[in-house]
Amino acid sequence: MPVIDWEPMETVFYLSSAIALVSTAMVISRIHAMHAALYLIVSLLAAAVVMFSVGAPFTGALEIIVYAGAIMVLMVFVIMLLNVNREKKNPERKWLRPTAWLGPGMLSFLLLGLLGLLLTEKHSGNVGQGEVEVKQVAASIFGIYLIGVELASMLLMAGVVGAFHLGLKKREPISTE
Amino acid sequence: MDCLWLVPVFPFLGFVILVGLGGKIANRIARWVGPLAVFGSMLVGLGVVFEYLSHPPQSGVFRQYVFQWIHVAGFRSNMALYLDALSLVMIFVITLVGFLIHLFAAEYMRAERDLGRFFAAMNLFVGCMLVLVLADDFLFLYLGWEGVGLCSYLLIGFWYHEPENVIAARKAFVVTRIGDTAMAVGLFLIYANLQTLNIQSAVQSAVQLWPVGSNLALLVALLLLGGALGKSAQIPLHTWLPDAMAGPTPVSALIHAATMVTAGFYLIARTHGLFELAPVALNAVAWLGASGLLVGGVCALAQKDIKRVLAYSTMSQVGTMFLALGVGAYSAAVFHFMTHAFFKALLFLAAGVVIAAVQHEQDMSKMGGLRKQMPLVFWCFLIGAGSLAALPWLTAGFYSKEMILWEIWSSENGGLIVWLFGLMGAFLTGLYTFRMVFLVFFGSPKTAAKSREKTAIKIPLLFLAGLSMVAGFVEIPATMGHGPWLSTFLHRVFDQPVHKHAGSLSEEWLVQIAATTVSLAGVILAYWLYARRRIRQYGGLSPGWKTSWQRAAESGLGFDAFYQKVVCRPFVGLANRIRRDWLDAMILSVVSMIKIIHKLFSLTQTGKLRHYVMALMLGAVMALTAVVLF
Amino acid sequence: MSSVPLEHGLWLSAGLFVLGFLGVMIRRNMIFVIMSLEIMLHAAGLAFVMASMRWQQPDGQVMFVFVLAVAAAEAAVALALLMRLFGRSGSLDTDTVGK
Hints:
Chain A is mostly helical. Chain A is 71% helix and 1% strand. In chain A, helix 2 packs antiparallel against helix 3.
């Protein structure tokens, strides 16, 4: 409609960034860990949409698959495994007093302000003027950044071995109270 | 006589060998090296004596230049040796007695560890003492002076594992140091005014430049006297001598009887020309000597420890020497020095044998009746004691004491009062000496004695006993045939007429009879009090009689307590009070500030992860702020 | 196409990062701390992507892949450690667990 002059991609961008921010704020302020995990998943999905909107489809897809699909699932599993009891021994209410937010909140605000100030010094250019295709990314990964890929795989292997070793139930049983 | 330099060098060589070879080897060879070094010194010394007597040098003086020591901007000090009759007598006595004592010590201290250290210090001592008496230069003399002080400290504190020995050594060092400082100031004054430190030149130019009775001469003489008082343990610097008996007995014999305590006497004799320019100082010498004589005698009377009796006796006898010097009887003083060295060393060595025999018990009340068990030691001790008490005709001490008393009476510097003091001193000497003899050797035995007299112990004892008898014959008074050989020998040193016969012969007879009677009276009183079974009260003069006087005499007539109260306590109190001064506070405040800062920083170590993260954030914020603002 | 200024993208990233940091600072529960760390990593990766889209180069996306790998490994190991710690002490409180 010619009255409203708006670009769809921009709108999507701003909307999903708002969702991401709000849901992240919810993540850190929840009492139950499960709620926080779900809010985090929402935040990740919103971020994926943001990436789609600026023209990085590969990254967006990757985010959904790996970040929201693997890492968050892992966290959800762990939360369920640990099974911290709902109301009886949940100390979060006690820990999350409003006064606890005061100092760190101020500091974070300060930091945000500073970062923002630094970022608006110069107009650097525009995003989302084109799309970077998967092919380009793939060519780059298996071309110039091959060694990075190898290192990342080694890192992952180290992670796997470490996690496996740490997870072995040898002597001490995990108390599930 | 060109070998004169070997006389002090042999002991130094012994010292270097023993120190350089280190502990274990030195301990094994020290028993040989130590006495051998002094033996070599004695041989050369005797050779020098013979040569001097047979071919005396032209002016009576032999000088030997050894080494240029300091030559700085017009100040020149050489290590040179000056040999005249006085130093000849001194080196004769020092090397002879020194060798005998080393021989004794090699056997007596046989079972000690650290023999290397012992003989090294003994050798160093003999070397320094020889340097002292042979020095041509005041600075060289001061070197020897300080050296003997050091060795005294080392040897008194030989058994340093016992704290009281260390305290005694320190006390000796500090008290003599006071005297040494006075002497050093005196030397500064001499150099400042006379531009030379050569002894002879200084004294001669002083005689020319300074009028008799001038204040400068008085000051210098008094300062030198201060040094002499410290080293010779005269009043007021005498408190270290009784405590110095904490050292081994050969040390007491060598240092504190025969040689070091006579260093002061030698100094005054050597610079007598200077002292004659200040009659007040000379008087002071005489009166201090007289008071030393009496104080030493009184205190010796009340002592329980045999070595302390001998220590006070030494103080008393050196006081006699000072007394003689003070009235101008220089040759008499030298004579008495020689005889005193012989009989006092003998007494100390014999006492050492006694102490070792009664299992290191030094308290005389626990000894008794030893004359049957140790006859040789008894006779040697008796000869020494007789010489000390100046028993007539057969003892060397008799002749020297007679000469002194006669000189006091007859010289113009002496006088009746001083003579009476001398007489009183003779009485006390007889009394305390034979008190010692009767307590130790007579009566019923209280401790079993096992005597083990080896040859090396017997020879020095016998030799010294012999000398204590015959050494007096070098100077026979006019009343018994006239044989002034010693004073003739010394006359050139002291510028005195060959034959000083100021009084008449009958006067001299009277003086001699008075002195002899007085000494014998002391001996008889001692016999009556201590040998008879009836009044066998050791220590006190008679039971329950004025025990407070007894205690006072035993503790040295309160000098120690006085010094403690007047000097030591205020000094220590002052040191404690200024311990925390402002400079200290400034430096300490740095320390406390650092401690406070540390406490503050420790607060940040909470152990909580969140706090650390917050700190990180804070740092990041600050850094970014800095970037943004600047 | 659309012209969103780069700054806005970076602002998004900064905001997410600060929120994650806030979570790390405030929360005592270990799970929340781990989640906040993930948020921070994610925000950094987002910044990379934004920057790369400004220049139309694929390099930022490659970096994002690496960041992803790091985050995954880190999450795995952190959660394993969390399980161990929980088993040993029975509580998830970061303040009291480190004895």
